[in-house]
Amino acid sequence: MYCNSLLQQIVRDGFHFVFLIAACLATSTWSTVIAQSPEQRPIIAIVVDDLFAYDHYRNTFGVELLTPHLDRLSSRGATFANAYAPIPVCNGSRAATMTGLSPFRTKLHMASPTQWNELVPIEQNWVSAMGAAGYHTAGVGKVFHNSANAVYRDIFESIYDQFRFEPGVLVKTDPGRIANALAAGKSIKDQRYTNWAVQKIQNHRADQRPLLLTVGLVRPHRPFVVPQEYFDLYPQSEIVLPQDTEGDLADVSEFYKSFRLQDGYHSHLVNNGWTKEFVQGYLASITFADAQIGRILDAIDGNLALADATIVFWSDNGFELGHKRTYNKFTLWEASSNVPLIVVDPSATPGSVNETPVSLLDIFPTMLELAGETIPSALDGHSLLDVIENPGNHDDDAVIMTMIGSIAIRWKELRLIKYNDGTIELYNSVRDRLSRRNISTLGVHSLTTIPNLLERMKQVVAQQGGVFDGQSAVVNGTSGDDALMVNGLQDVYGGDGDDLYFLADGGNAIEAVGGGYDRVVFADFDFTIPDHVEYVRNHTYANGRTFRVHGNDFGNEIYIASAKADVSAAGGDDVIDLGFGFHLADAGAGNDLIVCQGRADLFAGGSEGDAIICGIQSDTVWGDKAIEPDPPGAALQTEGDLIIADGVSPIDLLNADMKYRLGNLTNEAGYSLSTEALRKAVDVLPKRYQAFTVDASRGAADLIHAGLGNDLVFAQGGDDDVHAGKGDDRVHGGDGNDRVHGEEGADLLYGGEGNDWLSGNVGDDRLYGEAGHDSLLGGSGNDRMFADDGNDVIHGQSGDDVLLGGHGNDRLLGGVGNDQLVGHPGSDDLMGNAGNDQLSGGTGDDDMDGGEGDDQLAGGPGRDYLKGGPGNDSLSGGVGPDCFVIMSSFGNDMIDDFSAVDELVVTSPAYTSSAQIMNVAVQDGDDVLIGTAGYSVRVLNTTLAVVSSRITIQ
After folding, report:
1. What pLDDT does residue 346 have?
2. 3-state DSSP call for residue 656?
3. CA neighbor of 784 nearest in space, from 807, 810, 757, 758
4. Is 345 helix (H, G, I), strand (E, B) or coil?
5. pLDDT tens-digit profile of 735-786?
6. Hey, how many other C-beta atoms are within 10 angstroms of the C-beta on 813?
7. Which of the four pLDDT bands, split at 50, 70 and 90, describes residue 261?
8. Distance (Å, rounded) from C-alpha 591 to C-alpha 575?
9. How far apart are CA 31 and CA 685, in angstroms?
10. 138: which strand partners?
C-alpha cells in the first residue's frame, strides 16, 4: 500500500517521480500495485499510425473505403465512434496512451525529438504493468514512438529485432513521388511485423502464461508504399477531392494560420498536381493495413487457446485528408484527433457502437480491468468497461486534447478549441465532422455554451495535472511541476516546481528566484525571455516568419525549431540551439554554446569563451563582437572560442582523434581553450544534439571570424574563409579549398584536404597544409610549417622558421631569418633567402638556393642543384649526380661530397674560363682549395684532376 500511495503522489507531482519511483520498484514491482488475477485472458493489442476514424469518412472521397477486416473486428466487439487522441502527434499520443499519463504530466505537447522514456520512467507503461501481473509480453513494430531495440528489451520479454537486415525489405522510396507501388519481390516492414505476430499467435499454448502481444503497424503513415493491388482499388479517375475554397479557413484565427504546418501541406500538393495521388495513397495504405489486421485475426481464430482473447485496436492520431485545406495531422479539429477504437472481449456486446466521447488515456485502465487487475489511481484515464458492458450514451463525459499550448474539449456533440492566444472555435462535431463551420460567434453559444465549456475544460485539465483558466486575467500555478496553458494576455504565476509554460503574444510567465527549472514554449514572433526562466523554445511552425528572441542576463537555453530566428541572448552562460532556417544569433556576454543546423548564420559572441557549432550550410561566424576596453586604453582580455562548422556534433569530439587533440591542447605551449566552452559542448547538450552529425565533406563555404582570445575552430567541409583573430588559435580547415588567416598570436592552423591557403601572420605559428596543393605563409615570428601531400608553396617570411615540404614537388621560401627548409620526397625548389639557413632537399631532383647568409645545403638522393649564394656556405649533394653553384668573391664555401659525376659551376665576372679558375686552385691535403683568402671554395676528399674535369664557368 505504501508503494501504491507513493506512486500516486509521485505521478501527480510530475518530473520528480523519476528517482522516487526507482526506490519504490527497488522494494517492489507493479505486481504489488496490481493484484494478479487467477483468470487472465490473453490480450492482443494492435495500434496503427495516422488512421482517421475511417467509418465516418467511408464514402467521402467518391470511392468506398474498404476495410473488411476492421469491419469484421468491430462486429465482434464494442466500437467507440468518438474516441480521441490526447494530442494529435505520434510521439505525445503514444506516450500518453502507453503510460496512462496526460501530456500535462509527460510534458510532450508537440512533435519533439525528446523521447517519452527521457521524461517518464521506462517502467511506467501498461506493458510493464501487465508483465508484472504475470503476462508474457511480446512486442513488434511501432508501439512506442521510440522503437529502439534497447527500449523494447526493457519493456517486453520478447521482441522483433527492429533493425536487423532482411533481404527484400524496402528501405528507400522515390523522393519525387507521393505514393509508390511496391516493386515485385519487395516487402515493407509492416508485412514482416505481421509475419512475426502471426507466428507468435500460432505458437501460443493454453498451458503457457497469458499472452500480451502488442503489434504496431506503420501504415497508413507516409510513405504511401504498398503493393499495386491496393492502389488499383482506388482509381484516381474516380476519386472526388474535398471541396477546396478559401472560405475553408475564413473562420479560423490568424493565430492558428501563423503556425499552420507547411500550409497544411495543401499548397505543396496542389502546386505539384499531387492531391489525388495523395488521397489514393492514403486510402490504399489503409486497406493494406486492414489486410495485415486480417492476417492477425485469422491466426487468432485458428488457435483455440486464444478463443476468449481480448483484442484492442486503435490509431495513435487521426488525419485531415484535404478538408479545411489540410493534408496532415497537427490540428485540434475533429478529423485529426478522432481515432478508431475497438474492444473485443467476452464482456462486450458484439457490434455495439458507443457514441460516448472517450480518450486513448482510457486504454491503460480498461486493459487492466478487462484482465481482472486493480487500477492504480495515479492514471489519468478511466476504465471503459462500464461502457463496454452497458452500451449507451454517457453524456457527462468530456475529453481533452492539447497541442502546443492550445486545448480542445469534446463534450456531448460540441468541440470547443481555445487557442494559445485566447481565440476560440466551436463546432458541432456530430453534424459537422469536417469542422467546416465555426459557430462560436452565434449569440446563444457565446453567452452560455462557451463559458460553460471553458469551465469544464479548466476542471478536466486540472484533473490531468495541468493549469488552465480561460476566463481569468491572473492564473496561479501550484507548488508542483505544472504545465501552464497561458491564455492570451494572462499573467500566470508559477510555483516552486519545474514548470512548463505555453505563451502567446502578450502572455506573461512570472517566476520567482529559485522557483525550479522552468521552461517556456512561446508563440510570439517578438519574444523577451522572462526572468528566472531557464529554457525557452518556439512554437514549432512559423510558415516562413522569423522569431525574434531577446534574452536576459541569466543563463538561458534557447531552442528554435523549424523556423527562422534572430536571437540576442544578452548576458549569462547561454545555450542556443537553432534548427534549419536562416538565423542571426548574438550570444552576448558569458560562456555560451551555439548549435545551428541552418544556413547563412551570423553568430556574435561576447568577450567570454564560446562554443559555436554550425550546420552544413554556408555560415558566417563571428566569435567576438566589437568590444571596447573599459576603461579606454586598458588591455582587453577575452577567453577563447570553440567553433565547429558543417555539422560535427559534440559527441564526435569524443572520438579517438578529436579526444586526443582536445585533451592535449592545454599541454601545448602558449595555447589554452576555455574549459567552460568545452564542457558545455560535450556535457550540457541534450541528447538530441548528439545525434546531429553529417559527412563533413558535404559542408558549404563558411566565413568565420573567431575574434579575440585563444580559439579552436573546425571549419569542416566547403571552401571556407577563416579569420582566427588575435590570440593563440587553433584552426582546422577540413575538406575544401580553404583560406585561413592566423592573424595575431601563436596559431596552429590545419588546412585539411583541398588546396588551402594558410597564413600565420604575427606570432610563432604552426601551419599544416595536409592533403592538397597548399600555400603556407608563416608571417612574422618563428614559424613551423608542414605541407604534407601535394605540390605546395611554403613561405616562411620573417623569423626563424622551419619549412617541411612533404610528398610532392614543393617550393619552400625561407624569408628573413635563420630558417630550416626540408623538401622530403619530390622535386622541390628550396630558397633560404636572408639568414643562416639549413636546406635539405630529400629524395628527388631538388633546386636549392641558400641566399644570403651562412647556409647549409644537403641535396639527398637525386639530381640536385645546390647554390650557396652570398655567405660562408656548406653544400652536400648526396647520392646522385649533383650540380654545385659557387658565387666567387662572396664568402668561403665548402662542398663535402664532390665526385666525378657531379658538376661544379662558378659564377664570377673575374673569370672567363675554367682554366683561369684552376690557376687559383691547389691540392690542400685531401681537399682542393679554389680561390684566395676570404673568397674561396673548399672541395673535400677529391683531387685537382677530378675537379678540373667537372668545373665550368658561368
Report:
1. 93
2. helix
3. 758
4. coil
5. 788 888 888 888 888 888 889 888 989 889 899 888 888 888 888 989 898 9
6. 22
7. low
8. 9
9. 37
10. 158, 213
* Residue 414, C-alpha cell as written in the block: 460540441
Q: What is the pLDDT of residue 464?
A: 93
- Order the strands of the 136-141 sheet from edge to edge: 158-159, 136-141, 211-216, 43-48, 310-315, 341-344, 78-80, 352-354
The candidate with the shortest Cα–Cα distance to 768, out of 788, 783, 753, 782, is 788
Q: Which pairs from 385-389 meet CB under 8 Å and 24+ separation?
A: 385/347, 387/78, 387/80, 387/354, 387/356, 387/358, 388/77, 388/78, 388/343, 388/345, 388/347, 388/348, 388/349, 388/352, 388/354, 389/347, 389/348, 389/349
Closest CA to 97 of 296, 319, 317: 317
Q: Cell numbers of 543, please? A: 510558415
Give the percent of the chain with pLDDT over 70.
Answer: 79
| Whether 721 contacts 650, CB under 8 Å | no
Tally of CA atoms within 13 A in the half-sphere of 407 that contains its CB = 31
Give the other-Cβ count within 10 Å of 789's Cβ. Answer: 17
Contacts (Cβ under 8 Å, ≥6 apart) of 483: 103, 104, 105, 107, 109, 465, 466, 467, 499, 500, 502
Cβ distance 135 to 211 under 8 Å? Answer: yes
For 325-397, where are the E strands, in sequence order? Answer: 327-328, 338-339, 341-344, 352-354, 358-359
Tens of pLDDT, residues 265-308: 788 888 888 999 999 999 999 999 999 999 999 999 999 999 99
DSSP 8-state class, residue 449: I
What pLDDT, on the 0 to 100 scale, is given for residue 282?
A: 97
Cβ atoms of residues 13 and 480 within 8 Å = yes
**The one-letter amino acid at 143:** V
pLDDT greater than 70 at residue 679: no
> 836: which 3 cell numbers?
643562416
Q: Residue 919 — left, alpha, or beta (φ > 0 → left; ψ -120 to 50 → alpha)?
A: alpha
User: What are 320's three cell numbers?
Assistant: 485531415
* Beta carbons of 48 and 219 less than 8 angstroms apart: yes
Cα separation, 931 vs 908, in Å, equals: 11
Domain boundaries, the chain: 1-33, 34-411, 414-472, 473-573, 881-954
Least confident among 361-375, 634-648, 731-745, 914-928 = 634-648
Could you tell me what percent of the chain has a pLDDT over 90? Answer: 37
Nearest to 252 by CA among 458, 412, 427: 427
Sheet with 358-359, strands from edge to edge, namely 338-339, 83-84, 358-359
Q: Which long-range contacts (CB under 8 A, 24 or more apart) does 828-836 make?
A: 830/805, 832/869, 835/800, 836/871
Domain formed by 34-411, architecture: 3-Layer(aba) Sandwich (3.40)
Picking from 269, 297, 295, the residue whose alpha carbon sits closest to that of residue 282 is: 269
Do 823 and 841 touch, CB atoms closer than 8 A? yes
Separation of alpha carbons 484 and 462, rounded Å: 10
**Average pLDDT for 822-850:** 89
C-alpha to C-alpha distances, 464 to 282, 460, 482, 520, nearest whole angstrom? 34, 6, 11, 20
- Running DSSP on this structure, what letter comes out for residue 160? -
Average pLDDT over residues 232-242: 95
* Residue 177 Rama label (left phi>0; alpha psi -120 to 50; beta): beta
Residue 541 to residues 10, 254, 521, 580, Cα–Cα distance (Å): 33, 14, 12, 12
